Amino acid sequence: MTDPWVALEPGADASERVRALRRAHDRFTAAGAVVRPVRPVVAASWRRSAGAHVSPDDSAAVELTDGELGAYRAQHPLARVMPLFRELMGTFATDGEHLLAVCDAQGRLLWVEGHTGARRRAGRMNFVPGARWSESAMGTNAPGTAVAVDRAVQVFAAEHFIREVQPWTCAAAPVHDPRTGRLLGAVDITGGDGLAHPHSLAFVQAVARAAESQLALLAPPPTGDRSLRLTVLGRDEALLLTPSGHKLRLSRRHSELLVLLARHPEGLTGDELLCHLYEDESVTPVTLRAELARLRRVLGPDLLTSRPYRLTVPVESDLETVERRLGSGAVTAAASSYPGPLLPASQAPAVARIRRGLADGLRAALIARGDPDLLADWAHAPWGEDDLGVWQALAAARPTPPVLARLAALDEEQGAQGPYAT
């Protein structure tokens, strides 16, 4: 096979391949061994699925319903290109008895449209809007695996990890924000064995690229837009998008300064910044002024003023996005926008307080919600692997043997009222 991402090479016997894959799937689920004709991309996905404790007999969970689903879809960037998806794929899906599906970057299905009969059959396995089809929840499947590996992929019949899904074949491609490169989700075509053709993979790739081009046209940098865009969650050094469209990776100290200045649009005095940034009281104002002078050179002379120190343009940040969603009660949306703690290596006192406050607020909301998938995402993340409270909530919502074993280990290490990591 020339392309390992294509499910079937031209001329292959689909029926025979299905039988061989079923035998291979049975062997893997029984003994963990991968044999031919399983493709490397599928084998790697099966191993990730098993590592996430997905059972071949699992079913999809519907996380978003009714008003929450509608609100989340309305604010999602891919809502802006749904007319394009329908134009390019709608007729193909309906005429071919297929489904057009779009998921977010966490593998949650946002739209599922197409042939009425196919939708009805897919509904029996919860392939519906609002359901979670991430690879960590539903094993190998095209939309979930596409966002997991961040590239287009086909999944044919018994290549699916969940047995209930094995009558289907699908192809999906990731879609990115054209300005920042951030993964937004994936577009998918799901149907019968006929989709196991190189053309279907090329088709969804072309549709995804068209969507990215459309997003770039819909949201060009406005002529008068003077805002800074700051990415600070889950990374030690901030990524800054300037009004001119340049992407800059900032030093750790400059990252901290921008977080604090964005937090205080009214400005901060030198003494206030010293208090916010340094635990060591021996650090002199001269040191701070030197850092601010370097930051001014990075930003440009007109974006940072002094007396007090403040930014002359608005700042949009992923930190603010999570806080805003959490404050409005959109817990799922907040969790999906949280890639990790704020500047995790920063020891600046004010940054540490913001970091702890955001993590505390989000984990408390997750525990109160009790959604096992959201709790599992936090518990299996590096910042949540020792979080006893979240593991207790996860064990109450999903008492599987691996979860109970991890909870017992944490109880022994920390005690019933032990600390948790942020």
What does this molecule look like?
- One of its GO terms (biological process) is regulation of DNA-templated transcription.
- One of its GO terms (molecular function) is DNA binding.
- The chain is α+β, with helices and mostly antiparallel strands and 422 residues long.
- The protein has helices at 14-31, 40-51, 66-75, 82-95, 116-123, 135-138, 142-149, 198-218, 252-263, 270-277, 285-299, 318-327, 331-336, 349-369, 372-379, 388-397, 401-414; strands at 99-104, 109-114, 153-156, 169-176, 183-191, 228-231, 239-241, 247-249, 304-305, 310-311, 315-317.
- The protein is built from 17 helices and eleven strands.
- Helix 15 (372-379) packs antiparallel against helix 16 (388-397).
- The longest helix is centred in the middle third of the chain and has 21 residues, at 198-218.
- The relative contact order is 0.09.
Concise synopsis of the structure shown:
This protein is of the alpha+beta class and 422 residues long.
